[in-house]
Recover the amino acids of this structure.
Protein backbone atom coordinates (compact mmCIF):
# COMPACT_ATOMS: atom_id res chain seq x y z
CA UNK A 1 0.00 0.00 0.00
CA UNK A 2 1.22 3.48 -0.84
CA UNK A 3 2.08 5.79 2.05
CA UNK A 4 0.35 9.13 2.52
CA UNK A 5 3.52 10.95 1.43
CA UNK A 6 3.25 9.17 -1.93
CA UNK A 7 -0.31 10.38 -2.61
CA UNK A 8 -0.66 13.74 -0.83
CA UNK A 9 0.52 15.78 -3.84
CA UNK A 10 -1.69 14.05 -6.41
CA UNK A 11 -4.00 16.44 -8.28
CA UNK A 12 -7.63 16.64 -7.12
CA UNK A 13 -10.38 18.53 -8.97
CA UNK A 14 -13.48 19.54 -6.96
CA UNK A 15 -16.66 20.77 -8.64
CA UNK A 16 -19.65 22.24 -6.77
CA UNK A 17 -21.85 25.24 -7.58
CA UNK A 18 -21.94 26.15 -3.87
CA UNK A 19 -18.88 28.19 -2.83
CA UNK A 20 -19.33 27.25 0.83
CA UNK A 21 -19.23 23.54 -0.01
CA UNK A 22 -16.14 23.99 -2.14
CA UNK A 23 -14.28 25.85 0.59
CA UNK A 24 -15.35 23.28 3.19
CA UNK A 25 -14.06 20.32 1.17
CA UNK A 26 -10.82 22.11 0.37
CA UNK A 27 -10.31 23.06 4.03
CA UNK A 28 -10.90 19.51 5.26
CA UNK A 29 -8.47 18.05 2.74
CA UNK A 30 -5.88 20.77 3.44
CA UNK A 31 -6.01 19.99 7.13
CA UNK A 32 -5.49 16.32 6.34
CA UNK A 33 -2.31 17.18 4.40
CA UNK A 34 -3.49 17.29 0.79
CA UNK A 35 -2.05 20.28 -1.04
CA UNK A 36 -2.78 19.94 -4.76
CA UNK A 37 -6.41 20.88 -5.43
CA UNK A 38 -8.32 22.96 -7.96
CA UNK A 39 -11.89 24.24 -7.44
CA UNK A 40 -14.64 24.65 -10.05
CA UNK A 41 -18.07 26.26 -9.77
CA UNK A 42 -19.51 24.30 -12.71
CA UNK A 43 -19.19 20.99 -14.47
CA UNK A 44 -18.44 22.68 -17.79
CA UNK A 45 -15.50 24.58 -16.32
CA UNK A 46 -14.12 21.33 -14.95
CA UNK A 47 -14.53 19.53 -18.28
CA UNK A 48 -12.66 22.28 -20.08
CA UNK A 49 -9.76 22.06 -17.64
CA UNK A 50 -9.53 18.27 -17.80
CA UNK A 51 -8.62 18.50 -21.49
CA UNK A 52 -5.65 20.69 -20.53
CA UNK A 53 -4.38 19.15 -17.28
CA UNK A 54 -5.42 15.64 -16.27
CA UNK A 55 -6.27 15.22 -12.55
CA UNK A 56 -5.73 12.10 -10.45
CA UNK A 57 -9.18 12.31 -8.81
CA UNK A 58 -12.50 14.14 -9.26
CA UNK A 59 -14.87 15.09 -6.44
CA UNK A 60 -18.09 15.89 -8.22
CA UNK A 61 -21.33 17.35 -6.89
CA UNK A 62 -24.37 15.84 -8.57
CA UNK A 63 -26.86 18.72 -8.39
CA UNK A 64 -25.27 21.50 -10.47
CA UNK A 65 -27.34 23.73 -12.78
CA UNK A 66 -27.00 23.46 -16.54
CA UNK A 67 -24.43 20.68 -16.64
CA UNK A 68 -25.00 18.27 -13.77
CA UNK A 69 -22.55 15.93 -12.14
CA UNK A 70 -24.18 13.07 -14.03
CA UNK A 71 -23.49 14.88 -17.31
CA UNK A 72 -19.83 15.36 -16.39
CA UNK A 73 -19.49 11.75 -15.29
CA UNK A 74 -21.06 10.43 -18.49
CA UNK A 75 -18.87 12.63 -20.72
CA UNK A 76 -15.70 11.55 -18.96
CA UNK A 77 -16.46 7.84 -19.05
CA UNK A 78 -17.22 8.02 -22.79
CA UNK A 79 -13.83 9.60 -23.55
CA UNK A 80 -11.05 6.95 -23.74
CA UNK A 81 -8.41 9.58 -22.99
CA UNK A 82 -9.78 10.34 -19.51
CA UNK A 83 -12.20 7.48 -18.81
CA UNK A 84 -9.97 5.91 -16.16
CA UNK A 85 -9.90 9.01 -13.91
CA UNK A 86 -11.52 7.96 -10.60
CA UNK A 87 -14.63 9.96 -9.66
CA UNK A 88 -16.32 10.32 -6.28
CA UNK A 89 -19.86 11.69 -6.48
CA UNK A 90 -21.07 14.00 -3.69
CA UNK A 91 -24.72 14.95 -3.12
CA UNK A 92 -27.12 16.28 -0.53
CA UNK A 93 -29.83 13.91 -1.77
CA UNK A 94 -30.90 11.58 1.04
CA UNK A 95 -30.56 7.87 0.41
CA UNK A 96 -33.11 7.01 3.05
CA UNK A 97 -36.05 7.31 0.68
CA UNK A 98 -34.42 7.25 -2.75
CA UNK A 99 -31.48 5.08 -3.86
CA UNK A 100 -31.64 6.34 -7.45
CA UNK A 101 -28.71 8.83 -7.14
CA UNK A 102 -26.46 6.10 -5.76
CA UNK A 103 -27.50 3.56 -8.39
CA UNK A 104 -27.19 5.98 -11.29
CA UNK A 105 -23.76 7.19 -10.14
CA UNK A 106 -22.34 3.68 -10.14
CA UNK A 107 -24.06 2.76 -13.40
CA UNK A 108 -22.37 5.72 -15.12
CA UNK A 109 -18.95 4.72 -13.79
CA UNK A 110 -18.35 6.50 -10.47
CA UNK A 111 -15.98 4.67 -8.12
CA UNK A 112 -17.48 6.00 -4.86
CA UNK A 113 -20.31 8.07 -3.41
CA UNK A 114 -20.54 10.47 -0.43
CA UNK A 115 -23.77 11.88 1.01
CA UNK A 116 -23.95 15.32 2.57
CA UNK A 117 -23.56 16.09 5.36
CA UNK A 118 -20.42 13.94 5.59
CA UNK A 119 -17.90 13.63 8.39
CA UNK A 120 -14.36 14.93 7.85
CA UNK A 121 -13.01 11.45 8.52
CA UNK A 122 -15.25 9.87 5.87
CA UNK A 123 -14.20 12.38 3.22
CA UNK A 124 -10.47 12.07 3.96
CA UNK A 125 -10.49 8.28 4.08
CA UNK A 126 -12.45 7.92 0.84
CA UNK A 127 -10.09 10.33 -0.92
CA UNK A 128 -7.05 8.45 0.40
CA UNK A 129 -8.46 5.14 -0.78
CA UNK A 130 -9.27 6.49 -4.25
CA UNK A 131 -5.82 8.04 -4.70
CA UNK A 132 -4.02 4.89 -3.58
CA UNK A 133 -5.99 2.87 -6.13
CA UNK A 134 -5.20 5.43 -8.83
CA UNK A 135 -1.50 5.42 -7.90
CA UNK A 136 -1.47 1.65 -8.27
CA UNK A 137 -3.29 1.83 -11.61
CA UNK A 138 -0.73 4.34 -12.90
CA UNK A 139 2.14 2.12 -11.78
CA UNK A 140 0.62 -0.88 -13.55
CA UNK A 141 0.13 1.19 -16.70
CA UNK A 142 3.81 2.18 -16.68
CA UNK A 143 4.83 -1.45 -16.14
CA UNK A 144 2.61 -2.59 -19.02
CA UNK A 145 4.17 0.03 -21.30
CA UNK A 146 7.65 -1.18 -20.37
CA UNK A 147 6.67 -4.78 -21.08
CA UNK A 148 5.19 -3.82 -24.45
CA UNK A 149 8.46 -2.11 -25.34
CA UNK A 150 10.21 -5.46 -24.93
CA UNK A 151 7.77 -7.18 -27.30
CA UNK A 152 9.16 -5.32 -30.30
CA UNK A 153 11.52 -6.99 -32.76
CA UNK A 154 15.04 -6.30 -31.41
CA UNK A 155 18.16 -6.53 -33.61
CA UNK A 156 20.73 -8.72 -31.80
CA UNK A 157 24.31 -9.36 -32.88
CA UNK A 158 24.87 -12.96 -34.03
CA UNK A 159 28.34 -12.99 -32.48
CA UNK A 160 28.54 -10.91 -29.30
CA UNK A 161 24.75 -10.98 -28.61
CA UNK A 162 24.52 -7.23 -27.98
CA UNK A 163 21.18 -5.53 -28.71
CA UNK A 164 20.76 -2.47 -30.91
CA UNK A 165 19.01 -0.13 -28.49
CA UNK A 166 16.42 2.59 -29.13
CA UNK A 167 19.07 5.25 -29.82
CA UNK A 168 20.74 3.07 -32.45
CA UNK A 169 23.74 2.04 -30.38
CA UNK A 170 24.71 -1.47 -29.35
CA UNK A 171 24.14 -2.42 -25.74
CA UNK A 172 24.59 -5.50 -23.57
CA UNK A 173 21.36 -7.48 -23.11
CA UNK A 174 21.42 -7.03 -19.33
CA UNK A 175 21.83 -3.28 -19.64
CA UNK A 176 19.01 -2.98 -22.16
CA UNK A 177 16.53 -4.92 -20.02
CA UNK A 178 17.52 -3.01 -16.87
CA UNK A 179 16.97 0.32 -18.66
CA UNK A 180 13.53 -0.63 -19.97
CA UNK A 181 12.08 -2.53 -16.98
CA UNK A 182 12.45 -2.78 -13.22
CA UNK A 183 14.16 -6.15 -13.62
CA UNK A 184 17.25 -6.82 -11.51
CA UNK A 185 19.69 -9.58 -12.49
CA UNK A 186 21.24 -12.25 -10.30
CA UNK A 187 23.80 -14.44 -12.03
CA UNK A 188 23.73 -18.23 -12.14
CA UNK A 189 25.03 -21.02 -14.40
CA UNK A 190 22.90 -23.14 -16.69
CA UNK A 191 23.54 -26.93 -16.90
CA UNK A 192 25.03 -26.72 -20.42
CA UNK A 193 27.54 -24.05 -19.43
CA UNK A 194 28.40 -25.98 -16.28
CA UNK A 195 29.32 -29.03 -18.35
CA UNK A 196 31.13 -27.02 -21.05
CA UNK A 197 33.03 -24.53 -18.90
CA UNK A 198 32.79 -24.94 -15.15
CA UNK A 199 33.28 -28.69 -14.87
CA UNK A 200 36.54 -28.74 -16.93
CA UNK A 201 37.90 -25.85 -14.88
CA UNK A 202 37.11 -27.65 -11.63
CA UNK A 203 38.76 -30.80 -12.95
CA UNK A 204 41.86 -28.85 -13.93
CA UNK A 205 42.06 -27.24 -10.49
CA UNK A 206 41.72 -30.63 -8.79
CA UNK A 207 44.54 -32.04 -10.90
CA UNK A 208 46.75 -29.04 -10.17
CA UNK A 209 46.16 -29.41 -6.43
CA UNK A 210 46.79 -33.14 -6.64
CA UNK A 211 50.08 -32.58 -8.46
CA UNK A 212 51.10 -29.99 -5.91
CA UNK A 213 50.36 -32.40 -3.06
CA UNK A 214 52.49 -35.04 -4.84
CA UNK A 215 55.43 -32.69 -5.00
CA UNK A 216 54.90 -31.72 -8.58
CA UNK A 217 54.91 -35.32 -9.85
CA UNK A 218 52.16 -36.12 -12.25
CA UNK A 219 50.26 -39.38 -11.92
CA UNK A 220 51.33 -41.91 -14.52
CA UNK A 221 49.06 -42.42 -17.44
CA UNK A 222 46.59 -45.24 -16.61
CA UNK A 223 47.28 -46.93 -19.97
CA UNK A 224 51.05 -46.89 -19.31
CA UNK A 225 50.49 -48.55 -15.93
CA UNK A 226 48.67 -51.44 -17.55
CA UNK A 227 51.46 -52.08 -20.00
Amino acid sequence: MYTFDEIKDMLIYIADDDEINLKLIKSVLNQAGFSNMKLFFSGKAMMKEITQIRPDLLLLDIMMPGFSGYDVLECIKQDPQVADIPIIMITAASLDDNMEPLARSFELGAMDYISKPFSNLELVQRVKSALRMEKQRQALEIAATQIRSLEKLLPICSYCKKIRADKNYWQEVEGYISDHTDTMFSHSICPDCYEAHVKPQLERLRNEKKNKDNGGKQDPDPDTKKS
